[in-house]
Design goal:
This is Cell division protein FtsL. It is a single chain. The chain is an all-alpha fold and about 120 residues long. It has a domain of about 80 residues. The chain has four helices and no strands. The chain is elongated.
């Protein structure tokens, strides 16, 4: 009877050791994945900062004025005249969209398809 009890205890100990090893292995894998994601996020944030700095440089009015002066003949840019500005009511009406056209439904914001794409929002 004691031998059977010892065998059961040894088997329980081996099962617990196996379960503990699996939990430890999964936790280490998850920690490695979190580190990798944090590193990727840091790289993306650095890229965003660099792109914002590039945009700030490229959109400087003094730089744009120099480029405009340099390529004035090719671009044929002229100042905007007051009569060139229009009010929204003076614009032509949008074209009629046929009913049931999937592209027209998307443009109108009336998507009838149940398929959802893109990122999943948390509820």
């Amino acid at each position: 009877m004691i031998r059977l009890f010892n065998i059961v205890l040894v088997l329980l100990m081996l099962g617990a050791a196996t379960w503990t090893y699996n939990v430890k292995h999964r936790a280490e894998r998850d920690v490695a994945e979190i580190r990798s994601l944090k590193q990727r996020i840091a790289v993306e944030n650095d890229s965003i900062s660099l792109l914002e700095a590039d945009w700030a440089y490229l959109s400087q009015p003094s730089r744009l004025q120099k480029l405009s002066d340099l390529y004035a003949e090719e671009l044929q840019l002229r100042p905007t005249e007051a009569q060139q500005l229009v009010y929204p009511r003076e614009l032509p009406a949008p074209p009629e969209m046929p009913i049931g056209d999937p592209v027209a439904d998307i443009i109108a914001g009336e998507i009838t398809d149940a398929l959802t794409t893109g990122s999943v929002g948390g509820n």
